[in-house]
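Q: Convert this sequence to structure tokens.
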Amino acid sequence: MSERRMAINRLRDRLPVDAAAVDRFVARHGSPIVEGERATFLFRGEADGVSVRHRVVGLPDPLEMRRVEGTDLWATSMVLPEGSRVEYQLETRHGEHHERFNDPLNPRVAHSPMGSSSVCAAVGYAMPEWVHHDPEARPGELHEEVVRSKALRREQPVHVYLPARFHPAMRYPLLVVHDGTDYLNFAAMKTVLDNLIHRLDVAPLVVAFVPPRDRLKEYPNHAPHARFIARELVPLLTDRLPLLDAPEGRCLMGSSFGGIASLSTAVRYPGMFGSLLLESASLVFTDIGFEHGGGPYFDPVVKFVNRYRARPTRPVERVFMSCGTYEPLITPNRSMVPVFRAAGMTVNYTEARDGHNWENWRDRLREGLSWVFPGPQKYVYE
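A:
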């Protein structure tokens, strides 16, 4: 679409315009205005400056907006390739005072442990239909257990998912999910599991959702955490539930720091797990020097990944990896694929035009879970 034909430029062509014309424009288009591969963000109000705040690698942040002459309407446009999804907020400046908030003209909002953000979806992006409640899908059961952990020196809550039609005469694979409560709350993972199992995309499985107490301490190659998972939680669940007691029946999963927790646990206990499912894992490393730019919390991460890259091992047979092309972790994730493959692991790697957020990780669940634990539907069509 040419610049001339964009809605905001058609409005500028009509200047001067009165407040009623701006009212009609905003009511008609809302924000952002997605036209082909262009997205125009709008804000209405008095301010000394307005900008779009985001975490898209390659775009200026903040992305400054310009006032439409003679009005209280602000606008800026950016290229948004087909299939993209971007989370953002707006920021206003009044003198030295800055205020950030969700786009008041955009009803679409994504949630995370850090709060909420507005969502801009490009042409070609649609929320997967298997994310929504399917009344025909029989629901699995989710119940909480409390594990007394010697490794962690505390009681550790765990939410255990049992699939619909669970039967003690069957044997089920086990998926252990780091940041488990967040996957349930912000990635609709129980609903996703119910739907994918019902549709035969994913085999019926037992899932242990494990929340951390201090993820920045416990997730980057923390020996007590790995010991809890491998030597306490898995044996406990295997003793209580009809699980496949073999590596190919076990998978560790996590996003961001949870991806590091999954990998480091598998490295500490090689051969215990058959698969890893890593979403935007914080695989930060340095090939030279010590500056990684992630701050002190990333120091143990970088130390672990550097050591692994120097002497790669094969702790599991298969790894599913996903990452957003708009997040800073895209380069280290791409770089680790050949390292894992050279170590002898089968790697299924995928990218999405999205960022480091829970809806990106939610949208990759079908592809990842159906590859790790395929249902009969996968065998029929593949």
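The chain has two domains: 3-121, 129-381.
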